[in-house]
Design brief:
The structure is a homodimer of 500-residue chains.
Chain A lengths: L7 H29 L6 H19 L3 H10 L5 H18 L3 H21 L5 H26 L3 H9 L5 H27 L12 H14 L7 E5 L5 E4 L2 E6 L7 H18 L16 H16 L2 H15 L7 H8 L16 H16 L8 H13 L26 H20 L3 H6 L4 H10 L9 H9 L6 H12 L2
Parallel strand pairs in A: 1-3
Antiparallel strand pairs in A: 2-3
Helix pairs in contact in A: 1-2, 1-3, 2-5, 3-4, 5-6, 6-7, 8-20, 9-10, 9-12, 10-11, 11-16, 12-13, 14-15, 16-20
Chain lengths: 500, 500
């Protein structure tokens, strides 16, 4: 006979979060559909339905009884795993209970309205139209930040960032980013000088969407994506959505260029494999969730930058490119590699090369921090944006809202505090692969022979399988022996771009 | 200042059903996705999430306070529209409250499991595997019928049918269907004799899926489908799903035949236009719902049989067929028309011609009625099926489960009492078009010139715009002057198939 566990409070909490898991499944699906499938006329009804669900999820998380269950569970005889789960339950509960229900509903509606209109306003370069919706988004996000700040004692922006990157603060970030700015612009200059003398053939389009989709599917297969538990579709802004049991990736296609779509697909595949490989037996509990946005991005950037942009992997995917687009001189593997690592400051973050990408992030981080903390207003964004683009990237975005401050979906949907995760992720990813190379001496040679499992096995063992069992710092130390160390990132960039 | 309406109980009910509308939106989307998009590995998580939502919807509908609100609302000063809404609210409430919550959840899980496995069991002709899941489905449906029966005083099967076709009973159906069997088999014989002497060229495939999809989209556009509020996708069994604000149609493709997919698409477009044209300002309230399954099928069959199979419409869609499949002699409009109205008894209901279709329905009606009322057991189905197919259609289905009793999704997902609606719908549709022809003398000539709005306008004014404001009988009488009169159906079939 099974012995009865004496953990009634914990068991009640686990049941509640299982229910949240079920309802969140429907919400995640509705969100994916809204971005990838839904015709425009369906938006008002969808926004209302999702706001209702947001309200329900919030009301479950804010049930007044939960506080006493959480406190009672602390003194129950829990194993390590359940203890970690309780820690994450408390974290989720705390962030939900900082916000009043009417703010949650107003915010859901404001964000959905703004995001949906953005899809047509962006191509129309309609900043004024966007601004009208965005004021409500910002107002809600500031209110949210104020509530979370008073709950946690963190600064308003840090309180938002804590949701994505627990433990990270703008003070720590300023140190990391200020240091980056002491060497990165110089590296960019050196690399551009070096590349100016190289003769690299650009691929010649057009590239049909069907062929791009087929290449994407082949490369995802090469990268181990499980199509029995996921899909690839199209959306205005690429993302990884759905649920761990059914992970929905999207990309977007341009007829004249396949690289953006392909590298985007590889990026989302990294997110997707993390989700698909979270501990299956624990799904439905917070301890099975992905650790943080920074760790999530460290997976997408492991796939995109560490694997995808490696000479070894470019050699492995070149045949699929030739197969679906036909032969052309630019598809010679070495030429393709040189083309992919070409550095060229550009308007668009998601199309930016590996070297200038962090500059886009630092620009956004500074603006959104000041937006949330009231030092910048919604209508000031274009000005601040244009100045920073000119200074950091020497790019002119004046009047070009669609390729300037309207390019990202994040702010349109009220996502503040996320952008730093991209560059934190790039730093973590460099640290992972430094760790792998210490463990596997012939790593790069073996990867070139198709032994991709070397990378996947390490990531699975050290990152994916843990879910949220460990804190971010514990995870990083256990995987690599030290906390976050940005020198791996600098060394990675210098080796790739100046090494040969 | 606005005057406050003194209808607090009614207003509370309207708020509750608005909430149900929002949550049902998410459930409808999840259901559409499960059938058309979801990879197989996502099913267990999806089934659990949808069962949770079924439980929530059920708990809202069974809130003990609702009874007193409904009773109180009866004596509030309501206008006609609100009175009709209250009638439909009571109807929805009554059917939900006949069922205990645990049955609702068990049934949702049993149906989802059976339906999902059926998708692979059907092509594998795996009756034994299907039977194992189906026993649980039948058990739940019988329990459901017993509860509804004791609530309504109707026979168990009638109590299920009442959900789809309020007011219809097996006693009335037996009269209609027995009468049909006195003249339809004879008509089938005469028509087959007549057609045997006609020389009709069949279209020659293969027909690419992309071209079939393109033809489907063009024909849907011709039929006025609003793509700003809907989509066309693929699924194992075609259906019209989603929500009125965003109607999701599906079809399925065969490389060697485009007619099944095309006529299926036209059929679903009829359902879709009804949904898209329900009274927008009332959406979210039961009075805005489609009237009944029979009336719904009368729309799909108005599109498929009355319009789609008319000589006029075949002439209108022939150019789209030539455009996407290329020229061939069979695409001559008159030849295509004769090909489409070809009568040939066949295994598959959804591919059946207009004349033999009702025989498929009568067969299923009799079996499912006996299944629910315990005169037939799950394991008896193949035997009963094979005998009836031989008798009614002279077709041998022995051992051929996939083209026999496993061909439809209905029973796999616990849908009993629905099949009669198809033939009731065909009868109603004939009555609508008899009505239109009385009102518009040159109807057929003008349709041939592309004036399809003549049909759409009539359907919109007389059916779509009413939602559930009228009872079925009121709706039919107001639209055509008489209650359901099956002589229109007989006359329609005789005119089309023997008239020229």
């Amino acid at each position: 006979m099974a012995t009865q566990r004496a953990t009634p409070a914990y068991d009640t909490l686990a049941g509640t979060w299982k229910k949240l898991h079920h309802f969140s499944h429907l919400q995640a699906l509705a969100s994916w559909d809204r971005m990838s499938m839904m015709p425009s006329g369906g938006n008002a009804a969808r926004a209302e339905a999702m706001a209702e669900m947001d309200g329900l999820l919030h009301s479950i998380r804010t049930d007044p009884q939960l506080r006493s269950y959480i406190d009672a569970a602390e003194s129950e005889p829990l194993g390590d795993l359940d203890k970690a789960n309780l820690r994450e339950i408390r974290r989720d509960w705390r962030s939900a209970n900082a916000l009043p229900a009417d703010l949650v509903q107003r915010q859901s509606l404001a964000n959905a309205t703004c995001e949906h209109a953005w899809r047509e306003q962006r191509p129309a370069n309609d900043w004024q139209g966007f601004l009208e919706n965005f004021r409500a988004v910002l107002k809600c996000s500031r209110a949210q930040a104020a509530f979370l700040s008073s709950e946690t004692g963190l600064k308003p922006y840090d309180a938002l960032m804590d949701f994505y990157e627990p433990g990270m603060t703008s003070e720590k970030l300023d140190v990391l980013f200020d240091d980056l700015l002491t060497w990165l612009p110089d590296l960019v200059r050196k690399v551009r000088l070096k590349q100016a003398s190289q003769n690299v053939l650009p691929p010649v389009g057009p590239f049909s969407r069907a062929a791009q989709h087929a290449v994407g599917l082949e490369v995802m297969t090469l990268l181990g994506f499980d199509f029995n538990a996921g899909r690839l579709d199209e959306s205005a802004h690429p993302f990884c959505g759905g649920v761990p049991e059914d992970t929905r990736l999207t990309t977007r296609y341009r007829d004249d260029d396949f690289v953006g779509s392909l590298m985007g697909t590889i990026h989302e595949t990294g997110h997707g494999r993390y989700e698909q490989s979270l501990p299956r037996d624990l799904l439905g509990q917070p301890v099975a969730w992905a650790r943080s946005a920074g760790i999530h991005e460290s997976q997408s950037l492991s796939f995109e930058m560490q694997i995808g942009l490696s000479r070894a992997f470019v050699g492995l995917m070149a045949p699929a490119i030739v197969k679906h687009f036909g032969t052309q001189p630019a598809f010679d593997a070495e030429n393709l590699y040189q083309h992919l690592i070409r550095v060229q400051p550009n308007f668009i973050r998601v199309e930016a090369d590996e070297l200038t990408y962090p500059l886009h992030v630092i620009l956004r981080y500074r603006i959104e921090r000041d937006l949330i903390e009231g030092r910048v207003e919604a209508e000031d964004i274009p000005d601040v944006w244009d100045k920073a683009m000119a200074e950091l990237l020497d790019v002119d975005t004046c009047g070009n809202y669609k390729n300037g401050c309207m390019q990202d979906v994040h702010w349109a949907e009220g996502l503040f505090g996320y952008f730093p995760s991209y560059t934190l992720g790039a730093m973590y990813a460099a640290q992972w692969f430094a760790g792998i190379r210490r463990q596997v001496p012939d790593f790069d040679t073996r990867m070139a022979f198709g032994e991709l499992h070397l990378a996947f096995d390490w990531l699975k063992t050290n990152i994916w399988a843990h879910g949220s069992r460990l804190t971010t710092e514990e995870l990083v130390i256990r995987a690599t022996g030290t906390p976050l160390d940005a020198t791996h990132y600098r060394r990675h960039l210098e080796t790739r771009y100046l090494g040969d």
